[in-house]
Amino acid sequence: NRTGFPEAILAQGKDHDDLLIIINGYCTKKNSNNLLITRLDKNDYNRLKKDLKHLEEKGYNLDYNNKAKILIISNESKNKLSTNYGKIGIITGGTSDIPIAEEAKVIAEQGGAEVLTSYDVGVAGINRLFPQLAKMVKEGVKTIIVCAGMEGALTSVVAGLVDVPVIGVPTSVGYGIGGKGKAALYGMLQSCAPGIAVVNIDNGFGAAVFALTIIKNNK
Amino acid sequence: NRTGFPEAILAQGKDHDDLLIIINGYCTKKNSNNLLITRLDKNDYNRLKKDLKHLEEKGYNLDYNNKAKILIISNESKNKLSTNYGKIGIITGGTSDIPIAEEAKVIAEQGGAEVLTSYDVGVAGINRLFPQLAKMVKEGVKTIIVCAGMEGALTSVVAGLVDVPVIGVPTSVGYGIGGKGKAALYGMLQSCAPGIAVVNIDNGFGAAVFALTIIKNNK
Amino acid sequence: NRTGFPEAILAQGKDHDDLLIIINGYCTKKNSNNLLITRLDKNDYNRLKKDLKHLEEKGYNLDYNNKAKILIISNESKNKLSTNYGKIGIITGGTSDIPIAEEAKVIAEQGGAEVLTSYDVGVAGINRLFPQLAKMVKEGVKTIIVCAGMEGALTSVVAGLVDVPVIGVPTSVGYGIGGKGKAALYGMLQSCAPGIAVVNIDNGFGAAVFALTIIKNNK
Amino acid sequence: NRTGFPEAILAQGKDHDDLLIIINGYCTKKNSNNLLITRLDKNDYNRLKKDLKHLEEKGYNLDYNNKAKILIISNESKNKLSTNYGKIGIITGGTSDIPIAEEAKVIAEQGGAEVLTSYDVGVAGINRLFPQLAKMVKEGVKTIIVCAGMEGALTSVVAGLVDVPVIGVPTSVGYGIGGKGKAALYGMLQSCAPGIAVVNIDNGFGAAVFALTIIKNNK
Amino acid sequence: NRTGFPEAILAQGKDHDDLLIIINGYCTKKNSNNLLITRLDKNDYNRLKKDLKHLEEKGYNLDYNNKAKILIISNESKNKLSTNYGKIGIITGGTSDIPIAEEAKVIAEQGGAEVLTSYDVGVAGINRLFPQLAKMVKEGVKTIIVCAGMEGALTSVVAGLVDVPVIGVPTSVGYGIGGKGKAALYGMLQSCAPGIAVVNIDNGFGAAVFALTIIKNNK
Amino acid sequence: NRTGFPEAILAQGKDHDDLLIIINGYCTKKNSNNLLITRLDKNDYNRLKKDLKHLEEKGYNLDYNNKAKILIISNESKNKLSTNYGKIGIITGGTSDIPIAEEAKVIAEQGGAEVLTSYDVGVAGINRLFPQLAKMVKEGVKTIIVCAGMEGALTSVVAGLVDVPVIGVPTSVGYGIGGKGKAALYGMLQSCAPGIAVVNIDNGFGAAVFALTIIKNNK
Amino acid sequence: NRTGFPEAILAQGKDHDDLLIIINGYCTKKNSNNLLITRLDKNDYNRLKKDLKHLEEKGYNLDYNNKAKILIISNESKNKLSTNYGKIGIITGGTSDIPIAEEAKVIAEQGGAEVLTSYDVGVAGINRLFPQLAKMVKEGVKTIIVCAGMEGALTSVVAGLVDVPVIGVPTSVGYGIGGKGKAALYGMLQSCAPGIAVVNIDNGFGAAVFALTIIKNNK
Amino acid sequence: NRTGFPEAILAQGKDHDDLLIIINGYCTKKNSNNLLITRLDKNDYNRLKKDLKHLEEKGYNLDYNNKAKILIISNESKNKLSTNYGKIGIITGGTSDIPIAEEAKVIAEQGGAEVLTSYDVGVAGINRLFPQLAKMVKEGVKTIIVCAGMEGALTSVVAGLVDVPVIGVPTSVGYGIGGKGKAALYGMLQSCAPGIAVVNIDNGFGAAVFALTIIKNNK
Ligand SMILES: Nc1ncnc2c1ncn2[C@@H]1O[C@H](COP(=O)(O)O)[C@@H](O)[C@H]1O
Ligand SMILES: Nc1ncnc2c1ncn2[C@@H]1O[C@H](COP(=O)(O)O)[C@@H](O)[C@H]1O
Ligand SMILES: Nc1ncnc2c1ncn2[C@@H]1O[C@H](COP(=O)(O)O)[C@@H](O)[C@H]1O
Ligand SMILES: Nc1ncnc2c1ncn2[C@@H]1O[C@H](COP(=O)(O)O)[C@@H](O)[C@H]1O
Ligand SMILES: [Mg+2]
Ligand SMILES: [Mg+2]
Ligand SMILES: [Mg+2]
Ligand SMILES: [Mg+2]
Ligand SMILES: [Mg+2]
Ligand SMILES: [Mg+2]
Ligand SMILES: [Mg+2]
Ligand SMILES: [Mg+2]
Fold first, then answer.
1. What is the pLDDT at residue G9?
2. Which residues pair with D91 in a beta bridge?
3. Residue-by-residue DSSP string for chain E
4. Least crowded by CB within 10 Å, which of C7, D158, F143, G30?
């Protein structure tokens, strides 16, 4: 992978057999990095695990993150996790946004970032936001990913308080008109706070990869 | 008018002749209240003014508010403006929201409210918001109308700070996806701040009438 | 909670473990009010109930309202239900709107309101509407919440008949174009009846909290 | 024209030269009925009038209805207006809906119907609705066309009161979300009043032709 | 029921207990007509059947139409099915539209119409359309209901061939953009064939009731 | 231009100066083909004509097609119009679709096709469709472009009658829901007639280029 | 079947009994071609297989393609598969697009085409695209079907590289705004690469039938 | 201005008098930076220029950029333009995207960036893209802004070729479905190329401010 990002396969929309072929194919390649299977349901993971026993016997490690819905297939003999590219902050408005934030976290860490998180700091927790943000800035995060659903206004609040680039991830939280992330996406795109760009609804993956381009070019 | 609200005619979508007929018809009725012609362009007002000279001769007063785009036709001999129902606050995020706020203000005042305004306190002016809100609360406003476009997050901010009912008026400010008030409307409907209800995009009129129902039942 | 509203957790979108952590965390706080878990499916409630036995042993009461899909966790030693803030009316057009009305009712009562209800008075039952409304007005309701799906016109009818503020709650009833609450929401926002503001589709919770701001500032 | 409806040309989207060719072509055909040019702006009519002088010399009559925006080209020697197919009622909610109602009226009359109208009976004028409807029913209208914008609820009200088929024509009146006839169309399609079918927004023409099919098959 | 239409309850969105209460309530009323429970899944019907044994013992008949998803609760001692109001034609484009057509058929028959059907005559079967239509016209149908999904063009074809009013029912058949009945609805509303009005997507019920208003006023 | 298509510049969205630079730049290139400026308003053409006098002096020919809104800049010394690639049919439903059809015609002819047209054969003119289609097929057209607005059903009708590929061009004709080409586009995409593919609304240009790929690979 | 395309029944939206009737009816017709049941779930196929045993006994062959979700019912004594009409290329962007591509492949082959495929050549595999395309062109494909989801840009890339007509099939791959094929469809319709026409989202069937019209008229 | 960005006023939606008040107010503040008036039509600029003569007399410089539609009000005695924060690349697909690119360029330069541009390199000019990108990378741009309309695929192409963060700006270029920037926005949000985040349609301003946060935190 030319740009040094983790190799990621989107499980959603692929059936069991396709995934097996892709994974086995990848693991026979020499010097390959970690392989990430994203948006993998727990049940689908359990089925995969059974059919990938031979990989574990060959020294591969299967590590499933239940919140992030990501399976990491690694092989210690092959590549080492490096986290010295720089720091990324990840913030969520509520509890429901955490799965997307965790997806971003796993991708960012696999891509070589150190990640600082602060979850559930929107609305009711807004008083907890300020010290958390202050700490992140002091620790030197080079960019902050904000995952927020419903009206998604946390993104603007954060962008108004910090100078680093803020990456908005609207999450599919909320019902009624503007629900499922639409109001959050529209709001982030309409925001008049300085220094926001967005990725698609629930795209924690894309936010993390974008954040990695920032810190990798930042050195 | 049973509920004691000002009689209002929406000029938009009516031609010159229709308006003349409606106005003349209304002014021949006995003991009628003030008549408000809303969403009346300046040019259309000028044309009307010429053809309503006979009303001025009969003691009617034509008062055109250029920002609010409202013509007030009053007759001192007939009704007195009373403002003792209670106080209403009106806030805007930016300069572009002011016409809608002024529409609300005229309607509210004509309906018997005392109005306190604080314009252009969103985003850049957020530091000016707190003292203004504090003042409104101290003065005893019974409800606050918030006019905001783009992402419309000011409504949530205000609702998070005060205990009185907050009436959100999304304004048709902003371009691109979610523009023309859509993001603001969606955001206000998705807001998780307590105590918000909304009227349609640019409906300063409806917000004022709703505010009047609150203060009139509040005595 | 600064504004004196009931503390409410939206179960939708949170998994079992998240809910347990939130509930347990809340119940260890001193002098906390009742805790409401909203939009909680019966099955999820049953699972929670098992894992919250220890709370019941400590004197907490778990009261699940199946229509409203709300779990009320209360502790007699801690807070008393007060209903002396004032009266709120709640009306539905049909039978299918009742769950949303019940959500509003539970929230309003927990927030200190006395609630008068009149369900299924739209369309076929319109002849039952007039005496019911008259009774509510006579009893002194300070605001009326109208839950209506399909075309949602009941809201306008009510607003045309009463002088108190009317809060429209479009419900996700109806199929085809404009279904799932869209026609009702659009219709309420387009209504030319005086004195209507709206909350989002199915947002009985938000309507009740807004109604509470009206009656609490009404005293 | 096989079905006996008036021959109508939609001027909108056609340029001056196209219209001239179509009109001249039609008028050279023998025994042709009246020709209707619909959605013709006054300015465009004035230009046409000049270039159609030769038709007037040949005994054709050009009659332009400014509200309906229809030009009727008739020739007394050729066809007689018959109105003995039956009666149609046409109702509007407000003043702004009248142009669409007038379009329907001209078409219905040209197609041989007797038309009873009652305009501006929605909202404020609802008390005038009942006697007007009663009169129409007593006069024996076989169907009623209801033109209404904004939320369009008048259609349901009428359908709930009469037994004849009600044809809903949403009009492009209203601004904000659901404006330009969308809320009215959605509401009419979602209506639970019995006996409503709809035509497209502002399609007074289509409503009249449909009404004609009802009365013509009714004899 | 004033207008003589069958009393119909929409099961969709009501739970088992609500339905039981409504049915039992209705059947204790004297001289009530047949009761129709529409959009009732087979499973839900089976559950109802068990809990309505007492009605069958009292002489009520429960007749479930699996295609139409309608349960008819009748009582021979009470009302007689009359079909002498007139004839209605019902046509479908494909096999998938039949459930909606059957819903319309049951309602129309219960309301006193004689129904002639011709299914699956669109697209591939267009050659079968002409003789079927000719037969319907010859038999004297006073109106034709056309149920069609996908692009819904069958409605225009029929309206172009017959002189009676054509009622379009877009069905939720078709996938991709314009699927689920949207293209069919839009197409029917945009049709330039003379004599079409429409009801909402899948609203076989509404089409039948509308057709009944035509034939009942036709006598 | 590698594929042998005419070089086309979309004037829409470019200002006068940009167009001058592009045209002058192109005409100084050796052996360049004809240059087509599409979607050029008459007024803009007149302005261009003045500033391109020097081209005419150098032997260039400026030919403006008012219906198609295309300016063809050719130079006899440079390239010859060849029409021997094959035949393309172009059909429109109404008069309002002709500008789009003409855009397609000019592009197709400039690209080397022989074009057969048949305009205004939809709806009222459907009886004229059959002989026209028969003639096109007999003349050996290799593909037919159908331009249709409103419900756009003509495309399906044609595709059901011929065996050659049918290219649907929805035109922005029609008002109300589904207007401006939406119903036509959705209908063409939902069509179950065999052998249809579509281009975007009003994209006569794209349809012609696609047709050219068919005939050029057909030899 | 006049045009020589395979007879196809869309299983989606038809119940088991309907399918049985259609299949049995078709197979009793003399000299009928192969019958294709499309969009048939594996479970539904298994149920059908049991109830179609009698067909197998009569010499019919049931061949279910699990990726394409198509059941082919053939009878060797009746028709022979011919593939001499010409060659069609089919390309997919990712693994998730393969089912749609396979649907197209089965239909194209049944219709008499020879099909060349190249799957998963978008994004990561773009370097594999060029040689694959070159090979297709060299082999003489007369048209290329491109199945792509998400942003669907592969279609433009292909159209920019080859001279044959490119048929775009947006697939319902991708989440968030523009997901489920919308961005792909919009992008293909907006593409400025020369020589693209599109079918609806996931309509592999329609793409194949259109491709067949190209090659059959190409001989 | 805390973050060191240029102070910018959006002229769109503000009337002449509002702008005068804002500008005069700003210019009386001490040590203020340059003031930028964005989205200012040439005509509005000319009117402003007349009423701001007094500023020019006080040493202010009014510099209007016609492509970018930005007026820069600077005062040499007050602030110096610094461009030493780092380099930003700006690319457009076509000529029509240049105004948005120029808006971004002015903002970026005023904020202290050095800007490298490469316009009109999409579609036809794709062969010019590679050397231009290579040059930008070699010069050390820290981020690239890509302005593209229609399908907007240029953004993905660029992101696939460079390692720096790519900021997508969909432009409102293109007609029909997905036009006015919608397809471009959706496509950029759906892109699977690594390292893209987006701002709203035509938001060159927001893209530039975001780019500035990247380079300012990059030092
Ligand atoms: N969770 C995710 N969300 C968005 N994109 C993803 C995700 N996981 C993988 N991708 C991207 O999707 C592209 C297509 O995935 P695949 O279909 O697995 O080849 C990959 O190259 C990844 O860059
Ligand atoms: N500016 C406005 N915005 C919204 N509604 C209005 C406005 N002005 C008047 N109205 C309402 O619109 C209704 C219809 O107006 P009219 O068409 O004038 O009868 C009136 O009864 C008013 O309640
Ligand atoms: N009328 C038109 N409709 C659609 N696309 C066009 C039209 N005219 C030109 N184009 C295409 O639009 C692309 C971009 O045009 P331009 O902005 O002129 O470079 C050109 O390469 C043409 O392929
Ligand atoms: N998978 C498919 N996708 C799109 N159209 C199809 C498919 N399968 C069959 N069709 C078409 O859909 C039409 C209606 O199908 P049916 O309802 O089976 O008569 C048939 O005539 C086919 O042309
Ligand atoms: Mg910031
Ligand atoms: Mg509050
Ligand atoms: Mg009221
Ligand atoms: Mg009725
Ligand atoms: Mg007809
Ligand atoms: Mg064909
Ligand atoms: Mg090509
Ligand atoms: Mg990159």
1. 94
2. D118, D146
3. -TT-PPEEEE-TT--HHHHHHHHHHHHHSTT---EEEES--HHHHHHHHHHTHHHHHTTEEEEEETTTTEEEEEETTT------S-EEEEEESSSTTHHHHHHHHHHHHHTT-EEEEE-S-SGGGHHHHHHHHHHHHHHTEEEEEEEE-TT-THHHHHHHH-SS-EEEEE-S---STTTTTHHHHHHHHH--SSSEEE--TT-HHHHHHHHHHHHHTT-
4. G30
CB of C144 within 8 A of CB of C167?
yes
Smallest Cα–Cα separation from A26: which of A9, A41, A10, A40?
A9
> Edge-to-edge strand order for the sheet containing E141-148?
D114-118, D87-92, D141-148, D166-170, D196-198, E196-198, E166-170, E141-148, E87-92, E114-118
H201/B176 Cβ within 8 A: yes
Q: Is C105 left (phi over 0), alpha (psi -120 to 50) or beta?
A: alpha
**pLDDT attached to residue E219:** 61
Residues of H in contact with G177 (CB under 8 A): 185-186, 189
Residue whose CA is at the smallest distance from ligand 4 atom 11: F192
* Contacts F165 to G, Cβ<8 Å: 210, 213-214, 217
**Full DSSP string of A85-128:** S-EEEEEESSSTTHHHHHHHHHHHHHTT-EEEEE-S-SGGGHHH
How large is the average pLDDT for residues H132-156? Answer: 97
pLDDT tens digits, H162-217? 999 999 999 999 999 999 999 999 999 999 899 999 999 999 999 999 999 999 98
Angstrom distance (rounded) from CA H193 to CA H210: 20
Chains touching chain D, criterion 3+ CB pairs below 8 Å: B, C, E, F
Decide if C130 contacts C146 (C-beta within 8 A): no
Ligand 1 binding pocket includes A9 (Cβ within 6 Å): yes
In order of their start, the domains of chain A are: 7-75 (3.30.110), 87-216 (3.40.50.1970)
pLDDT at residue G203 is higher than 90:
yes
B39 CA closest ligand 2 atom index? 1
Measured between beta carbons, the chain E residues lying within 8 angstroms of F153 are 151, 153, 156-157, 187, 191
> Tokens 């009873």 belong to which residue?
D116
DSSP string, C156-182: HHHHHH-SS-EEEEE-S---STTTTTH
Antiparallel, parallel or unpaired: β G70-75 and G87-92: unpaired
What's the complex ipTM?
Answer: 0.95
Q: Please tell me the number of Cα atoms within 13 Å of C105 on its side-chain side.
A: 22
Choose the mutation target among A155, A185, A213 for the interface with H, i.e. most H CBs under 10 Å: A213
Kindly list the residues of chain D whose beta carbon comes within 8 Å of any beta carbon in chain F. 10, 12-14, 18, 22, 170, 172, 181-182, 185, 200-203
* Cβ <8 Å between A175 and C12: yes
- β-bridge mates for residue D65, sequence order: D70
User: Which of D181-185, F54-58, H119-123 is modeled with the greatest confidence?
Assistant: D181-185
Burial A166-197 (b: 16+ CB within 10 A, else e): bbbbbbbbbbbbbbbbbbbbbbbbbbbbbbbb
Whole-angstrom Cα distance, residue D198 to residue D171? 11
Q: Confirm if D59 and D68 have CB atoms less than 8 A apart.
A: no
Vertex E144 angle, CA E140 and E145, to 5°? 150
pLDDT (tens digit, 9 = 90+) per residue, C70-108? 999 998 776 555 668 899 999 999 999 999 999 999 999
Q: Report the alpha-carbon angle H86-H90-H95, nearest 5.
A: 160
* Ligand 7 centroid from CA C120, angstroms: 20
Q: How far is CA A36 from CA A33, A42, A65, B3, G55, in A?
A: 9, 15, 11, 65, 48
Confidence of residue D193 (pLDDT cuts 50, 70, 90): very high
